[in-house]
Design goal:
The protein is mainly α. The chain has three helices and no strands. Helix 1 packs antiparallel against helix 2. The longest helix has 17 residues. The protein is elongated. The model has no long low-confidence stretch (mean pLDDT 80).
């Protein structure tokens, strides 16, 4: 949860710092924000919290497939 928010925040800051030129395709900075957004929205935060809590409380490891 924290990592998702931090990644999205960092992507936004790239544009804040770089201004309009940061959006130029030649810099490829847009892909970092898109990748962070995809990972952050892949599963709802509530699902990530449940899986994390299950791991911390019960020792059940997170799924090894790409759905977490």
């Amino acid at each position: 949860m924290t990592a998702s928010r931090a990644a999205l925040n960092a992507g936004e800051r790239l544009y804040d710092v770089g201004g309009a030129s940061a959006t130029l395709r030649e810099h490829h900075l847009d892909r970092h924000w898109r990748n962070a957004r995809t990972v952050a929205s892949h599963n709802p935060i509530a699902h990530k919290a449940r899986v994390s809590g299950d791991w911390l409380l019960n020792g059940t490891p997170p799924p090894l497939n790409g759905f977490f």
